[in-house]
Design goal:
The chain is mostly helical. Helix content is 88%, strand content 0%. Helix 1 crosses helix 6, helix 2 runs parallel beside helix 5 and helix 8 runs parallel beside helix 13. The longest helix has 60 residues.
């Protein structure tokens, strides 16, 4: 088997494993979203969105990116088979997780009145933010446990912790929202964070990591590399959360909580539905490109392989989403949210450009170009905010979807040229062909759903979905021999029976 085929198979396998976990989480999310939409309505969704975005913003500010950066260090220690080194890295991570989590909780408790005033325009929700401050510690501890599982490649434990945590949180959520409605929002967020922490700790405790005591000086020395990389990643996440936070506040003040609820619901569906692909990509991709960071030719090869497979996998999903978007809105929420359809059309097209920006963007982190990465993200988030404010002002909620698509397009062009100038990067002709075919099919689907009526939009749209699926299968088979593997599988089964 060629090295190229092995590489494609490795990427496909990793994305399949982590994508499978996300599928179950999506089902849980559908039920939860539907429940909240029916019981709380758009106003309740808006309240949940403002609370969670505020807490997420603070969490991103004080987590220092440890939830991602430490994966690389733990993976390196694990691959060395040095148990002492593993214990040192894990002990260092856990100490920094406690420090940053406690610090975030204290800061949030202090600024709770200001958070309430800034987010809702009054101090009526001060107690709510004060209670939610403890979730910052729980979330940071959970993140630390997941990092250990991910870094040591305990994928089954990681999957079980995610699935069981989300499932139990859902079971607790149902009666609380049913009996207490909007008054249950804060308790539900707190209880969900506790449940996630319990399962992450439960599965991490199964690992054979020898406890070790290390000095304060060693903790600082060992933690420098984690914090250095983490701060770069954290800054990016923080800017995204900050932009989302400002947009929600602006929309809330100009259009009210209903528009905030529509905005939150629309992008929640898009991110949930496509998140399984990007989550899988994030988990596997950064360590892989970091391993070849010193060789520009190998970086180019890895980026092209990742971008090709991601486009081939995600394109049929996006087309299916475009054609049946109304059904997804009703499934996730209710008929009250149908007006968000047009925003979601444009937001879905934007995902194609997100594949490009994500695929190339990790090269900056892998090569340690923290300054370039920060400036690029800063510029990208500035025009993302600008486009969103202008888009909402002109077209309302639909304008937010158009702004999102334009932002991702400009960002992909920006990162492409940065990498081309600094590292002589370019996409191979095969990627341009794949991308062009799939986005033409997506734009054709968009035209169909906007200008044809039932049942013709579904008939024509289904044709484009099948065409996209066939093309993706054909291109995937050229790279990883899907047909050959399936035939070999059934051939082996027949031999066993004989």
């Amino acid at each position: 088997m060629s090295n190229s085929k092995l590489a494609y198979k490795g990427i496909f396998r990793a994305m399949s494993i982590f994508g499978g976990v996300q599928v179950f989480n999506i089902l849980i999310s559908i039920i939860r979203s539907k429940l909240v939409a029916v019981l709380l309505g758009p106003t309740g969704i808006g309240l949940v969105g403002l609370f969670t975005s505020s807490i997420s913003f603070i969490s991103g500010l004080f987590s220092f990116g440890l939830g991602i950066s430490a994966v690389k260090d733990i993976s390196a220690a694990e691959s060395s088979s040095n148990n002492m080194r593993i214990s040192i890295v894990v002990a260092t991570l856990r100490r920094w997780i406690w420090i940053t989590g406690i610090f975030a909780t204290i800061i949030t408790s202090i600024i709770s009145p200001f958070l309430s005033q800034w987010t809702f325009g009054s101090k009526d929700y001060t107690i709510g933010f004060l209670c939610l401050s403890i979730t910052l510690l729980f979330s940071q501890l959970t993140s630390g446990q997941f990092v250990v599982l991910q870094g040591m490649r305990k994928l089954s434990y990681l999957a079980k912790a995610n699935v069981l945590g989300n499932f139990l949180s859902l079971l607790i959520t149902i009666p609380l929202y049913y009996f207490f409605r909007v008054d249950a929002i804060v308790p539900v967020i707190i209880i969900s964070s506790i449940v996630s922490l319990y399962f992450s700790h439960h599965f991490t405790s199964k690992l054979s990591i020898k406890p070790i005591k290390i000095s304060r000086r060693r903790i600082i020395a060992e933690g420098k590399s984690m914090l250095a990389v983490g701060l770069v990643i954290s800054s990016s996440n923080l800017m995204v959360l900050g932009v989302t936070y400002l947009i929600r506040i602006y929309v809330g003040r100009e259009g009210g909580l209903i528009d905030v609820g529509l905005f939150s619901a629309g992008f929640s569906i898009i991110s949930t539905y496509t998140g399984m692909v990007f989550s899988a990509m994030l988990t596997d991709y950064l360590p892989r490109i970091s391993a070849v960071a010193n060789d520009n030719n190998l970086c180019k090869q890895v980026i092209n392989q990742q971008a090709e497979l991601t486009i081939l996998i995600i394109s049929p999903i996006l087309l299916f989403f475009l054609i049946f978007i109304n059904w997804f809105i009703i499934l996730f929420y209710s008929n009250q949210f149908i007006s968000v359809t047009n925003m979601m059309y444009w937001g879905t097209i934007g995902i194609f450009f997100k594949v490009i920006s994500w695929s190339i963007g990790f090269i900056l982190i892998a090569k340690g170009e923290s300054k370039v990465f920060f400036i690029s993200e800063l510029i990208g988030n500035c025009y993302s905010l600008l486009f969103s404010l202008i888009g909402y002002y002109i077209w309302g909620v639909t304008g937010l979807g158009i702004a999102n698509m334009l932002s991702l397009f400009v960002l992909s062009v920006q990162i492409f040229y940065i990498s081309k100038i600094k590292y002589d990067f370019n996409f191979i002709p095969e990627f341009y062909k794949i991308f062009s075919v799939q986005i033409i099919l997506a734009l054709s689907s968009l035209i169909v759903v906007k200008y044809l009526y039932n049942p013709y939009q579904y008939l024509a749209g289904s044709f484009f979905i099948l065409l996209s699926m066939w093309y993706s299968y054909h291109e995937l088979d050229k790279r990883i021999k899907i047909k050959e593997d399936i035939l070999n599988y059934f051939h082996n089964i027949r031999n066993l029976k004989l």
